[in-house]
Known about the structure:
This protein has 13 helices and 18 strands. By secondary structure, the chain is an alpha/beta fold. Helix 6 packs parallel to helix 8 (213-221), helix 7 (197-205) packs antiparallel against helix 8 and helix 12 crosses helix 13. The chain is globular. The chain starts with a strand and ends in a 6-residue tail after the last helix.
Amino acid sequence: MALIVHKYGGTSMGSTERIKNVARRVAKWHDAGHQIVVVPSAMSGETNRLLGLAKEVMANPDPRELDMLASTGEQVSVALLAMALQSIGKDAVSYAGWQVPVKTDSAFTKARIQSIDDARVRRDLDAGRIVIITGFQGVDDNGNITTLGRGGSDTSAVAVAAALKAAECLIYTDVDGVYTTDPRVVSDARRLRTVTFEEMLEMASLGSKVLQIRSVEFAGNYRMPTRVLSSLTDPMIPLEEEARSGTLISFEEDTHMEQATITGIAFNRDEAKITVMQVPDRPGIAYQILGPIADANIDVDMIVQNQGVDGRTDFTFTVPRGEYNRAMDVLNTSVKAHIGSGNIVGDTKVSKVSVVGVGMRSHVGVASQMFRTLSEEGINMQLISTSEIKISVLIDEKYMELAVRVLHKAFELEKA
Length: 416
């Protein structure tokens, strides 16, 4: 029998009845002889409610106090789940992140896990208990409660699984796995039986919302097999069937992968494009533009610097749409005059569409097929970026869903 970590999202914990269903599912795995650690999220909508209360009290709440407040949602979940398990005769105990402890840095609202002390958890597991640990949170060196950012419970679960050297981390969610693309956009999108960590990392970074990107990074770094599966099935589904369901995120060399050229189509609506015009074409200019953007903690994605003409060039990059106004302020106040550039222009009505697949390493013609398919639909590509296993293009947002559908069809992703 193995040590297994279960993670349940907010939808799975959305009501007391659903929490009872989670308890029945967890008990089934425990009854089969497995040691079980559970990492639940706050009940659906609870974190938003708490942050809304904070905004009613203070327009710009102190990040430390926000973490103190937001962390309470998960404490409610773990206590209720422990009670639900106890009510059906299971010995269960719940812990907040600081009690384990899950040690993090001090970057409030977006902390990163540094270490996990597994001694207390292992003692409970050895005593036959089911251990329930709050997701999304930890404690810094000064004893302050910290949170890991939205979707942080995924990261908590994978980190706990890695610290405990679990056999597998099961991420229960309201979808039944990872699909070739969003089924709400492409009706014949296909659930993937397996996907590599590299592919999942690209898909998560490119807009797939199935898993938080840092959880995939953790899983890859610690070689932790991670399975995405549905919590909306009957909790008493046979364990053998459940253990094979969903999508296993694993290692290419460890799994008999279907070597398709393309695994999936990812997309992100949350894009904005900024162009700094007439930039002096000299060494270090990219740093002079993007340094202040990084100092403002704004993520930059796609970057293109045009060929210089007469000592001048245009410099274009993308940022999250929610950071667009702040990025423009930084450029206009701290960069434009300093580097002696021309106008700074932007566009918030753009989206990114990407094809992803480890098979691209050994197959040629992916880019030409992608570009031809978009061209035939009259879709103009504003920016292009590539890596070894992905090609991304920036397009007008009104063509995004069309682009996803025609690319899905062109690469025959509906076929197993």
